[in-house]
# Entry
Amino acid sequence: MEFHDDYPSYETMYNHDEAYGKKARRTLWNVFWIMLAITVFELIIGFMAPSKGWSGTLGLKVLFIGLTIVKAAAIVWWFMHLGHEVKFFKYVILLPYAIFMLYTIFIILTEGTYSGGSGRFAPTDPIFINQQKELAKKHHGGGGHATEEAHGAEKEHSGH
Amino acid sequence: MAHTAEIDTKEAWSGGQSPFRVSYGKMFMWFFLVSDALTFGGLLISYGFIRHKYAEVWPKAENVFTHFPFVEQHLPLAYVGLMTFILIMSSVTMVLAVEAGKRMDKRGVIVWMFWTIVGGAAFVGSQAWEWFHFIVGTEEGALRNVWDMAQGKYVQQTWHGANMVVNEYGVPQFANYFFFITGFHGTHVFSGVVINFIIFLNVIKGIYHKRGHYEMVEKVGLYWHFVDLVWVFVFTFFYLL
# Structure
């Protein structure tokens, strides 16, 4: 350390002792296990969704986006230690971002209506609509089992 | 913690102090990350907009990302689940490296940073594999109207895989956004691995130990966690919803 001025050096003030480190490590691992549990839960729900008819429902969207924000908050708060910074610094980082994002979402929800759904300006190629209809039919009812059967039939068909 | 010790608010803002209680380098890493997060936020919002516009013809992730290495079966979501696990895991090893640095434990920093770099490289490799399968496509393919240069008109044919103009999964915008957003994220992961590696070499050389603090590890750690943070959102919007 070559500096001998009046300014506090925040870099070295960050250093902590073994006892504190032990506590910090335990917190970090707990955060990790919670995040992993959330991800596994999301994957299970995502796996079940097509057969249960949950795909594309509002409840599922809200659940997934909510869990994502929980995970994001955990990363920012504990992994990036924003939770340990002074209050003012937290606001300086989070507020401008939140304001800009909410504003962008707001403006795209209100001003974005000009697109008027697919087919208003350039009609969607019916080929795409048919494809999604076919896929939906294949996955409709019976769940994963039916999907596998459909795949089997497809392979047979392509074999001819 | 020591650095959050209370000081008089008036005194803090009257100069000669650092009211934010963070060093210059770390503060500007945060500012950079905010600006980068705005870019990603803008991209994801525009993705949501286009996806809503083509809601009825937008392909479902479980019909597109069904492959898993060395397995013939269709396993939707399994592979991306593994990728997510790798990235979260590498985020944990990074934060443990930062924690070891705060105890001036050089060996700990080296070990945890090593695993972080391994995890990051594994993630980039996984993404390359995913892109490969996305571009090559399935054997069945799908009917598409493709522009034929020689005939000067659209010709219906079975199309396999994806490019920026036509893909077998659905509307072209689907592949465009997939390439752009996961590509932009992948670029961040790749640069993160490179930066981590440079800092890793410096740690081995003992530069930060001599300096008396491992704040540089914390700064690259911030960037690395940000990459993980973005992936959490990409994972939700591209694969789950």
About this structure: Chain A touches chain B through 76 residues (CB under 8 Å). Residues 1-84 of chain A form one domain.
